[in-house]
Write a structure and sequence with these properties.
- The chain has 807 residues and is mainly beta.
- Helix 3 links the parallel strand 25 and strand 26.
Length: 807
């Protein structure tokens, strides 16, 4: 048996827990959100002080909580890697009472994510220790809970010390906490696994494996009823079984239910079904679970590539870290959902969770909105990348943590692959191959329906090895991820014709050559940009900066005041960055796009990092550069493009057919304000066009909320865009101003700032500068139903107020 916290999983288990928090059993809420009424103390202290001293300074906080994002930037031990933020040690405390329940009832705490090395204490006694910061875990607190009506003191110690991450991790209980109540006869939270088979004749079979546990001291007869409901709540199939459960045993019960005319889950039609599972004994409901799932098929082969429901799909992918920009690592439901919305709106159909399991709500949103997922477990195995990272725990905990990811996430139809590692140093030696085979066997033990993958890089970390050694690293994998190795795709496809390949990490500058190979070969199934969304930490990895001619290249990462990686297609406020222009052309989102390079000061030259993009803008606002020659780049798949300035034809150029500048044409244009227009030409006929217009002078601030009606919950948010505009409503991207933010009514400003990777002063500030004419405020309901009013005030452009209703 495998021990996950104090929660036992038999070797037969295949499941996930996705019960709605409203599910009830005998008038008892089964899963209760446990996020409210916590206190926090920064700094370590003896356990005796945590539970018995009245002198400790405790601060009231909401969970999810990230203390690193609340503290000032400092020259910390993590430094550039974690974006100049502070880790350390912190304590959380919560006082609660349990309701009147049967003496036999079980109480468990479920933590979705704590970064990291968490110790769980209840009433002065240690319950559990969990080192990994990204996997979810259960703690059985039944025996330590005081009787109903008496106070219980829960404390959680969290250590985020030393150099333990290559990116911003955040610190603390940064995902949800739940209190789970069941009887001694119960369903296993991670003990339900739903798989589907699609038949010709428009039918599907839903297979439901359910673990039923009897932790009482007597044998018990039980009835298990499974009902399948469609997205409208209509019953489309059901089945009932009976079983006798021996004392202190867990049995797996199997159901197969036919569904006629199933609606298949896909990116365009992400239809979800629900399996309602009810456990009865002596005519009484003992436990209830509701599990969302999708009916869909996936297959992978070198001949046909990746098929979803029998249809070939090329993965238009992006890698994302787990943070939420201005919110830090805090995994508020709406923030996780918005991240998926941004990816979908920008043309992505797949995401790689780099380099750790994501939040549950992120995967829920991928299911509902239709985004394919590579779910990844580890960034290191036995060998470290930082001296204090997860390698210290790998031998003891990797099986537990990998099983946790699989068991929690495998009912999500969005998940199509399990990744066991990223750029693992020992990937090609005998120990690494043995570890990969072991990890693969663990995955298959709990889910044989999806392939196992990993991201394999070149041997810069093992200089004595050549690429031929990658054969050992790829051998245990079902699908092979290549990090920045596009020039080996064709060679390896010839040498290993059965190999299925995808670009697990690629750069924006090499995007065209990568995507050409994806389109050309069926066994090359997709491309994942590093990264889809900007993230905190790995500061300045995507830089483009000007230096004196002849100077040495800047380092890979940039130090103070850089705190943002700046390599994403989308910035931390949700705005598209210039590098998306090429992606739009490659993926068919647009037919033509245009960028203009910022003028480079005399005597200097631009240095663009490997993950960077030239300092270009989709703008024709260049005040102060009148008459100067500007470099204009037009992206298109048309054979040629024409460029006009104020209706005057400047010239026509063919689109480059090869190299890193493929799908583009470059023009030198003397700057004159007005309208710059690029037109695609096909067989001599002008087709679609792209226009850049010089905006007028800024006259006011425009304020727009992504959602004007919120639910009365801390898990709902409104993202308010603040933009400096001219009289026509055009954003003035070459001017900025400070804005003063205030709020009244039933809400609070949870965070605000801009997307600049070096503006530490404006990050999470209530008086940020705009950056390229833009800033962002994130509002959260507080205080009940009603409305909140955000006022944005400027010294020069007046003020604006926007109202958000809370229902």
């Amino acid at each position: 048996m495998m021990k996950l916290g104090r929660y036992f999983i038999t070797s037969m288990v295949c499941g996930i827990f996705l019960v709605a928090c409203s599910a009830q059993r005998d008038n008892q809420i089964r899963k209760l959100r446990f996020d409210d009424n916590w206190c926090f103390h920064y700094g370590d202290m003896p356990v005796s002080v945590v539970f018995h001293s009245d002198t400790v300074q405790w601060k009231a906080v909401d969970i999810p909580h990230d203390w690193s994002i609340e503290m000032p930037f400092v020259k910390s031990e993590g430094g550039i890697a974690v974006g100049q933020t502070q880790g350390g040690t912190g304590w959380y405390r919560k006082i609660f009472k349990i309701s009147e329940t049967e003496p036999s009832e079980r109480k468990l705490l479920y933590f979705e994510g704590v970064y990291m090395e968490s110790e769980i204490w209840l009433n002065g006694k240690k319950v559990f220790y969990h080192p990994y910061g990204y996997t979810s875990f259960y703690c059985d607190i039944t025996e330590l809970c005081n009787p109903s009506g008496q106070e219980n003191v829960l404390a959680v110690k969290v250590k985020n010390e030393g150099e333990n991450s290559r990116w911003y991790s955040g610190s603390g209980i940064y995902r949800h906490v739940w209190l789970v109540t069941t009887g001694r006869l119960h369903l296993h939270e991670w003990g339900v696994f739903v798989t589907t088979e699609i038949f010709s004749g428009n039918r599907a079979k839903v297979n439901v494996a359910v673990d039923v546990s009897n932790q009482s001291d007597k044998n018990t007869d039980a009835v298990l009823h499974v009902t399948i409901r469609n997205d409208k709540g209509e019953v489309v199939g059901e089945d009932t079984s009976t079983c006798t459960l021996n004392e202190d045993r867990t049995e797996t019960v199997y159901h197969s239910i036919l569904v006629d005319k199933p609606q298949l889950w896909s990116m365009d039609t992400p239809v979800l079904y629900t399996a309602d599972i009810k456990l009865l004994s002596d005519g009484i409901y003992k436990d209830v679970l509701s599990i969302p799932f999708g009916i869909r098929s996936i297959s992978f082969s070198a001949k046909e590539g990746f098929l979803l429901n029998g249809v070939p799909v090329k993965l238009k992918g992006g890698c994302v870290h787990h943070d939420n920009g201005l919110l830090g690592a805090v995994a508020i439901d709406r923030a996780e959902e918005r991240k998926v919305e941004l990816l979908k709106a920008n043309g992505f159909n797949a995401v790689r969770c780099a380099h750790n399991p994501p939040s549950e709500k992120f995967l829920d949103a991928c299911d509902r909105l239709g985004l394919l997922v590579i779910d990844e477990a580890f960034d290191q195995w036995q060998k470290p990348k930082n001296k204090n990272d997860y390698h210290r725990f790998f031998n003891e905990w990797s099986e537990i943590d990998l099983a946790s990811m699989i068991l929690r996430d495998r009912n999500h139809p969005s998940v199509i692959m399990w990744s066991i590692g990223n750029e693992i140093q020992e990937r090609s030696d005998s120990v690494g191959v043995e570890i990969a085979q072991k990890l693969k066997s663990i995955v298959k033990k709990y889910d044989a329906t999806r392939p196992v993958t990993a991201a394999i890089n070149d041997y810069w970390d093992n200089p004595t090895l050549k690429w031929e050694a990658s054969f050992n690293a790829f051998a245990p994998l079902d699908v092979c991820g290549y990090n920045y190795m596009w020039w080996e795709y064709e060679n390896d496809s010839k040498s290993y014709p059965e190999r299925i390949i995808y670009g697990s990490e690629t750069t924006a500058m090499e995007r065209a050559v990568n995507w050409d190979l994806v389109e050309k070969y069926p066994n090359i199934i997709g491309d994942f940009i590093w990264t889809a969304i900007d993230y905190l930490g790995e500061s300045g990895i995507g830089h483009a900066i000007n230096v004196n001619k002849g100077s040495k290249n800047p380092p890979q990462f940039l130090d103070w005041p850089w705190f943002n990686a700046w390599c994403g297609d989308i910035d931390i406020c949700g705005y598209r960055k210039p590098q998306t222009a090429l992606r739009d052309i490659l993926w068919g989102n647009k037919k033509i796009a245009m960028l203009v390079h910022l003028p480079i000061p005399e005597g200097q030259e631009e240095r663009v990092s490997y993950w960077g993009w030239p300092d270009e803008e989709s703008s024709w606002n260049w005040e102060g550069n009148e008459g100067k020659e500007m470099n204009v780049k037009v992206y298109s798949r048309y054979s040629s493009v024409r460029l006009y300035l104020n209706d005057m034809l400047l010239g026509e150029k063919s689109i480059v057919g090869e190299g890193l500048d493929k799908y583009s044409a470059q023009f030198k244009v003397k700057y004159i304000p007005g309208i710059l227009k690029a037109v695609g030409v096909d067989a001599g006929v002008e087709r679609e066009e792209c226009i850049l217009i010089t905006s007028g002078i800024p006259v006011e601030i425009d304020v727009k909320a992504d959602r004007s009606i919120l639910q009365d919950t801390k898990n709902d948010l409104s993202y308010v865009r603040i933009e400096l505009v001219d009289k026509e409503g055009n954003i003035v991207s070459d001017q900025d101003c400070k804005v003063e933010l205030s709020i009244s009514g039933k809400g609070r400003i949870l965070s605000a700032g801009n997307a600049c990777p070096t503006d530490m002063e404006s990050f999470r500030s209530l008086s940020p500068m705009t950056y390229k004419g833009r800033a962002l405020a994130i509002l959260q309901p507080k205080g009940g139903k009603g409305c909140m009013r955000l006022t944005v005030k400027t010294e020069k452009y007046g003020k604006k107020t926007i109202t958000i209703n809370v229902e």
